[in-house]
Amino acid sequence: MQRHLISAADLTRDDAVLVLDTAEEMSRVADRPIKKLPTLRGRTVVNLFFEDSTRTRISFEAAEKRLSADVINFTAKGSSVSKGESLKDTAQTLEAMGVDAVVIRHHASGAPYRLANSGWIDAAVINAGDGTHQHPTQALLDAFTMRRRLVGRDAGLGQDLTGRRITIVGDVLHSRVARSNVDLLHTLGADVVLVAPPTLLPVGVGSWPCEVAYDLDGVLPKSDAVMMLRVQRERMNAAFFPTEREYARRYGLNGDRMAKMPEHAVVMHPGPMVRGMEITAEVADSDRCTVVEQVSNGVSIRMAVLYLLLGGNEPAAPHTRPASHPAGETAAHTPDAAEEK
């Protein structure tokens, strides 16, 4: 693992599998009466959110607290940012507080990269979503969910998604989730197909490591997982499709379309869902839909990322960042080993 997690494209196959396997270990904590490990005791993590969030922010906070880290929650609303404070000044304020990691969500693409490489702060930086660019932990939790469903919880350890066919449907143009998933799923060996109106595909998508299709009904019978994306109206300044009804007719997933999928195939959605547009209530509430499962898995994945980036069971010391564990060293650095110290 590198020092920061900025983009899913930065992860090697071994890095990604290491995170997924570590998340399996972390998921066992949720089954315990006391859902807590002392792994990051003495470390401080700040959640720096410049955009609204429910699932990601709460998921990171739950992960940090389950690892016994000290947590600082920062939101732009009600802070000095609303008075015009720059990202640099905010970062230097956090640096003065001695934080060990910064989880940042920002409306500007590239903000986490800038923070990690600016020299403003000596802390691990985790991208929790930047503009329309990347959302690496979402891609990791999606891959974790797919591996569990398609390979198996125990059989999946050490495995990737080679040979699986994943279909991503909807507003690819504005989706950092789509970009991150294409990068990570390709790294893990999966075949990815994007299905969207031409107006909702980004310029240059032909160079992405995936296929592009326009007929949803034609790709469903060959899909192992179908990920529906929300139409992000808040990022749109023009009409990208005629009407919501027309969009739902051509690109929405309903019961009839779900019936065309293989029996083992699953339906995914990063949330929040707009029922009746990209997905019907019948599909969203079916046993094949993994939306709630993805939220639960998100806590395990974010625990794994924090554990690997912050040195796991190494002793905490102010501004001392031990090297990240290379792939293959999980046996000596397991969560249970940390708990036994």
Automatic annotation (TrEMBL):
Keyword Transferase among record annotations: yes
Molecular-function GO terms, alphabetical: amino acid binding; aspartate carbamoyltransferase activity
Family indicated by similarity: Belongs to the aspartate/ornithine carbamoyltransferase superfamily. ATCase family.
Pathway(s) it belongs to: Pyrimidine metabolism; UMP biosynthesis via de novo pathway; (S)-dihydroorotate from bicarbonate: step 2/3
Region of interest (Disordered), ranges: 317-341
Example GO biological process: 'de novo' UMP biosynthetic process
Stored HAMAP family: Asp_carb_tr
Species classification: Bacteria, Bacillati, Actinomycetota, Actinomycetes, Kitasatosporales
Gene Ontology CC entries for this record: cytosol
Name used for this protein in its record: Aspartate carbamoyltransferase
Coiled-coil annotated spans: none
Catalytic activity: carbamoyl phosphate + L-aspartate = N-carbamoyl-L-aspartate + phosphate + H(+)
Domain named Aspartate/ornithine carbamoyltransferase Asp/Orn-binding: residues: 163-309
Protein encoded by which gene: pyrB
Binding sites annotated in the UniProt record for carbamoyl phosphate: R55, T56, R105, H135, Q138, G271, P272
Self-association and partners: Heterododecamer (2C3:3R2) of six catalytic PyrB chains organized as two trimers (C3), and six regulatory PyrI chains organized as three dimers (R2).
Function: Catalyzes the condensation of carbamoyl phosphate and aspartate to form carbamoyl aspartate and inorganic phosphate, the committed step in the de novo pyrimidine nucleotide biosynthesis pathway.
Assigned EC number: 2.1.3.2
Chain positions recorded as L-aspartate binding sites: K83, R176, R230
Keyword field: Pyrimidine biosynthesis, Transferase
Domain Aspartate/ornithine carbamoyltransferase carbamoyl-P binding: 3-147
Pfam family membership, one: OTCace_N
